[in-house]
Hints:
With about 270 residues, the protein is α/β, with parallel strands linked by helices. It has 11 helices and 10 strands. The protein has one domain (about 5-80, about 115-265): NADP-dependent oxidoreductase domain (TIM Barrel, Alpha-Beta Barrel). Helix 2 (about 55-65) packs parallel to helix 6 and helix 6 crosses helix 7 (about 150-165).
Amino acid sequence: MQKIIIPNTxxxxxxxxFGTSSLHHLPSRNKRKKLIHAALDEGxxxxxxxxxxxxxxxxxxLGDFLPPSWRNDITISTKFxxxxxxxxxxxxxxxxxxxSLRKLFKPSFSRVSRDVTLDGVIxxxxxxxxxxxxxxxxxxxxxxxxxxxxxxxxxxxxWILKQKKSGRIEYFGLAGEVRQCMELKKxxxxxxxxxxxxxxxxxxxxHAMHDNHPVQITYGYMRKSLNNDIATTPIEALDLxxxxxxxxxxxxxxxxxxxxxxxxxxxx
Length: 268
């Protein structure tokens, strides 16, 4: 797979990144292992996860199944801000039961908890490091940032900058909707190293980024760009997305190994 250096960083990694947002939809531990190893076989070196993906399960799966000998070759990005359910963290089977309940009682079971306080980020990073079985995070991101949370983030940012100086966190970024990301980027300035933007072919959200901050990581093409006027298949949508983000990492998420192989051929 093609490699790139992520703009404004020293990270050399794969052109495509493997997103784990749906990894926990594979209840079988063995199937999760096979999917992660298939991604490695296809040349994926960038793995994107979050504390709330599978309520810790996705981070644990990467920690369990990424070979330690590959650690210096692999880039791991995780996120804080959206809080994992403590019950599901401790009892993963309850997560699947909860999923069934949400289908029946969606209004009661669809609430998302956020915590961007200093205690919240310290706890989240500690859990992430433990689950991922690593002593450092290549990239830590704020998950779906909100400009209304800027006052709460002030003290958290001081701590994050200290972690960057110590090497515990290499880069800090924002992952979410472009306008919210840009508002926080404008406020915190150079403290934000990386922007990960939800993008589409039709709206070209990533083009709203400032000229002095290049497109770095984008996602959402296969989900958001399917229509008869733009793309008729997920692979076609992704191909267009790769052209739109020509120099950064494009994240893909799939639980199908055959589709993973087709996707990787786009950047051989």
